[in-house]
Each structure stands twice: as C-alpha cells, then as structure tokens.
Amino acid sequence: MDPYRELGVGYSTVRRPDPRIARAVWAALGDARSVLNVGAGAGSYEPADRAVLAVEPSAVMVRQRGSGAAPVVRGAAEALPVRGGFDAAMALLTVHHWRDLAAGLAELRRVSRRQVVLTWDVEVMARQWMIAEYFPQVAERERGLATLNAVVAGFGGAAEVRPVEVPWDCSDGFLAAYWRRPEAYLDERVRAGMSGIARLPPEVAAAGVARLAGDLRSGAWHRRHGGLLGREQLDVGYRLVVAS
Q1: Rounded Cα gap, residues 117 and 169, in angstroms
Q2: For residue 56, which of 11, 40, 79, 192 is within the disulfide window of CB 3.0 to 4.6 Å?
Q3: CB 17: neighbour CB atoms within 10 A?
C-alpha cells in the first residue's frame, strides 16, 4: 500500500527545498558526479549540476515532481532497480518509511561508493517543544522505526554524523521546521506534509493541536519558549550520515 496516497497530496506545496539545507546535502555528496536519489519524493535537493537518477515507490509523489526534476523510476529502497556504479546515493528523510532498513542500506552500499542519508536523532527531537509538549506520540512511534544509531550501524559503524541546524524561516516544512513559528502547526495543510503527525490517529493529532492553540491564545507558549524568537537557527535533531 502506498503510504503517500493520502498524506502525500499537496506535499510539494509545503515541502519546498531550503537552499541552506541543500548546501549541506550537496557538500556531503563530495565530488560525486553521478547520484542516485532513493526515496526521492517530489525531487527536493537533487543537485542540478550532477547526473541524477531518482527512485521513488509512490505514484502520488512521482506525479508531483517538477519539470526540472531528475528522471525517475519506480522502485523500493530494499530492491533498487539499478545495477550500480553511482558515485553517490542519497536518501533524504525517507528511511523511516522503509520496510527493511538494513536491506535498504545494503542496497545503497551496493550501488554507490558514497552514501548520504538525512535522518534524525529521535532523542534530540523528542526534547523539542512541538514533540515533548504536544505530539509525544510521534517520538514513541519513531523509536520503533529507523533510528540514527541503526543507520550508522547499517553502514558498519564507520559513518560520519553531521548535525544539520534548521533556520528559523526554513522553506521545507518537515516535522520540526517550524520551531520558531508555532502557529504553523495549527494549519492542517502544513501538518499534512509531516508524516510523523499526519500518521497519528486523528483524535490524537487533534488533541495536540487543541493544546497548542490554547497555549498560543493564553500566552503560555510564549512564556515557556519566547527565548527561541531571537534564534536564527537551531539544532532540532536532524543529522546527515555520510559513509563510503
């Protein structure tokens, strides 16, 4: 079943690549000239100055790829439909959707000499206000999926881990992108682009939204977290794992 059949609708309107995060991803690719983008989605962060082939299992996501996106083939990370020979393979904010993390990481290693995975440290993210105070069930669920430690272990433990700080005005609306813009979490369209929240039971997500709305009305959120409003960027747990 395609998990993006419902939550992927309108994805490209709220998940627009942020140039600062793009620079971090492209730097991690090193001197790679050929890149396989696994779990490519709508095509975010595909470098225009390199030869890129995308692999994406979801027809919903493939239809949202722009005219300038790389060519795409349908396929799953656990059985990539390519022979290999790529300088690098990248998998950005996708490993938590894979059915078999170890198999997917083994496939990345099979087809490329360098691997770049953007994921998150769930324990760091669990301390962020949007999770800790309003959607703790997200962290509970993510602990049972692909964790940062599992990704590093899947690369034999020799991978480099690079923190990716998120700018306050990040254009890519992933889960913790709005750490300085709490009102955004009240927007159903924004939440639909965050699989962590979108896949919660509706009543659980609604309860978290109601608590946040109440705290914004009363000023409680600003009393607890007003100090964030002066920050330009923040480490909310996102990590680039680079292996070769």
Answers
A1: 23
A2: 40
A3: 17
Instruction: For residue 102, give both structure tokens.
Output: 């170890």
Structure-block tokens of residue 231:
């920050």
Token couple for 240: 């680039």
CA–CA separation, 85 and 34 (whole Å): 9
Q: What is the pLDDT along the chain (244 residues), one digit of tens a residue?
A: 445 444 545 556 777 999 999 999 999 999 999 999 999 998 999 999 999 999 999 998 899 888 889 999 999 999 999 999 999 999 999 998 899 999 999 999 999 999 999 999 999 999 999 999 999 999 988 887 768 999 999 999 889 999 999 999 999 999 999 999 999 999 999 999 898 999 999 999 999 999 999 999 999 999 999 999 999 999 999 999 999 9
Beta-carbon neighbour count of residue 74 at 10 Å? 12
Could you tell me the pTM of the whole model?
Answer: 0.91
CA distances to 36, 99, 116, 196 from 84, in Å: 9, 21, 15, 32
15 close to 172: Cβ distance less than 8 angstroms: yes
Compute the residue count for the chain.
Answer: 244
Dig out the tokens for 57 from the structure: 């299992």
Long-range contacts of 7-10 (CB under 8 A, 24+ apart): 7/192, 7/193, 7/195, 7/198, 7/199, 8/58, 8/60, 8/61, 8/64, 9/60, 9/192, 10/189, 10/192, 10/193
